[in-house]
Amino acid sequence: MDVTGHTSPDNPSDPGPAPRKAASIRDVARAAGVSYQTVSRVINSHPNVREETRKRVEAAVETLGFRRNATAFALASGVTRSVTVLTSNTTLYGYAATLQGLEEAARAAGYSLGVKLLTPEDDLNRTISSAVAGGGGLMVIGFDPLGASALSRVPADVPCAAVVEAPSHGRPPPRPAVWADDREAARAATTYLLELGHETVHYVAIPTSVGTRRSEGPRAQGWRGALEAAGVTPPEPHGGKGWYAQVGYDEGRELAHDPGVTAILCGNDDLALGVLRALHHAGRSVPGDVSVIGFDDAPHSGFVTPSLTTVRMDFQGLGRDAFALLRSRMENDYRPPAPTFVGTDLIVRESAGPAGPTTSAAPEAPTQG
Q: Do 43 and 110 meet the contact criterion of CB atoms below 8 Å apart?
């Protein structure tokens, strides 16, 4: 049986009030006392409109309930206002928060946003072709090997932008992209632990987008660089097998049994949670015996016990900036605003403290711009 959203009126012979005609762009122009071209500039976020005029137009749009006809706009401008995001994950904090930033920016600009979840079984070329079959732009979250591989296969004629790991020096991404300097952020976090008096810092790694076990991502590179700059031989890194707390717990159990381990940097907060649990089960206190620092500042990191010292990453800002970058590829006369990404910060909480029995105050945390 076919069920629709229609309902039957009490009196079938009475058609009821006639539906209200949708407001047009010219209706908005008349209400605001401007030309319809000015209304068009306002609703398409063009910068060269006086603020007083913009507010008057926006008030008229709100009052009249104006909604732009997306199909008509696409035909008139040659721009299909839709974006498809390719990503291998929607649950991990970094991916989800980046998607949030993308969605907020797309909605504000009048674009529709769809998501295609990549899996290792996908034919990436076919997935990309399907994503752009109806026109529009393509956004790739390339934090992992699958996303990075998809980005490298996007045809040159497809409007595309990406959010990626910090690239290696001299090796820019294959398409326009934004990223955080997590290499420098990891260096700063490692240096902070060394300044607390720890002789060395162990590292539990996330997988890198390069995709090989021997390759190090930017966070691992920053950790290694800080130790080498301090004249410390880096210990063998752990992890690299996943992003989740279970991986951190498995690696943390091994580290917990080594009395020489007094400081651990983790590639993300989920790994750090697993490490904290493993240290607790081994009877080692945090930060009394071992200091732990995470990465990303996921929402739960400030509410565990002890609360997690971590590197704050503005993933929403990266998402907004990536959308602006893509929009500038889709609309010839659009100029992206100043970036909204605010950099990285080391957020000092309870899980990192001085080495050994000393109770001296912790040094002030460095701030990354």
A: yes
The DSSP string of 159-189 is: -EEEEEPPPPTT---SS-EE---HHHHHHHH
Distances (CA, A) of 312 to 125, 296, 320, 349: 35, 5, 17, 12
Q: Give, in order, the Cα–Cα distances in Å from 360 to each of 78, 198, 309.
A: 64, 13, 17
DSSP string, 111-159: -EEEEEE--TTS-HHHHHHHHTTT--EEEEEESSHHHHHHHHHS-TTS-
Phi, psi of 124 (to 5 degrees): -60, -40
Structure tokens at 52: 């007083």
Nearby residues of 52 by Cβ (< 8 Å), 6 or more positions away: none
Residue 89 is predicted with a pLDDT of: 93
Tell me the per-residue pLDDT of 57-82, one tens digit each, with 9 for 90 and over: 888 888 887 765 544 444 444 456 88
Looking at residue 177, what is its pLDDT? Answer: 93
291-296 and 238-239 strand pairing: unpaired
Give residue 79's pLDDT.
52
Ranges of residues in the chain whose predicted pLDDT is under 70: 1-22, 44-47, 67-80, 170, 210-215, 340, 342, 357-369
**234 DSSP 8-state letter:** P
Contact residues for 225 (Cβ-Cβ < 8 A; gap 6+): 183, 187
**Confidence (pLDDT) at 90:** 93
